[in-house]
Amino acid sequence: MKVFLSKLNVLSGTDYKEVYPVAYGIFKDIKKKSKRKPYVRSCYFSKEKIFLDYFWQHIHQKNWWDQVRRLKFYKCALDLIKKSKIDPYSVQDPNKPNRLLHRFTGKTRLGNEFIVQIMEDKRTKQKHFISVFPK
Description:
The chain is of the alpha/beta class. The protein has one domain. It is 31% helix and 30% strand. It has four helices and seven strands; from the N terminus they run E-H-E-E-H-H-H-E-E-E-E. The protein has helices at 16-32, 53-59, 64-71, 74-83; strands spanning 4-5, 39-42, 48-51, 89-92, 99-107, 113-121, 127-134. Strands 1, 2, 3, 4, 5, 6 and 7 form a seven-stranded mixed beta sheet that branches. A hairpin with a 5-residue loop joins strand 5 (99-107) and strand 6 (113-121). The radius of gyration is 14 Å and the shape is globular.
């Protein structure tokens, strides 16, 4: 399987109080650019919008240790969404049949592998960035 090589590295820090403000600051910069839902445009999906709001709902359901582990890859995940042209592993969501889950694999500058998960609603064709986690 092909892997997207990001030029960025993971966010530094080992504590929630070090990593969260940096990751949320990146999100706030993107949020300032749109009047409604924050989004980035994806190269793979022909410059369609990938909405970012579901990620923050999902991340707050996790414990602090898991949040830090995932938030460290936030900047790399956005880089992958924006620039990757590599085909993802796509599967129908087993819980909801009207959703597709796309999993992209990436690698940071220092060689840390991670997976980005994007959910696509088949009916509305909207895409939402759900999760990022180390492989």
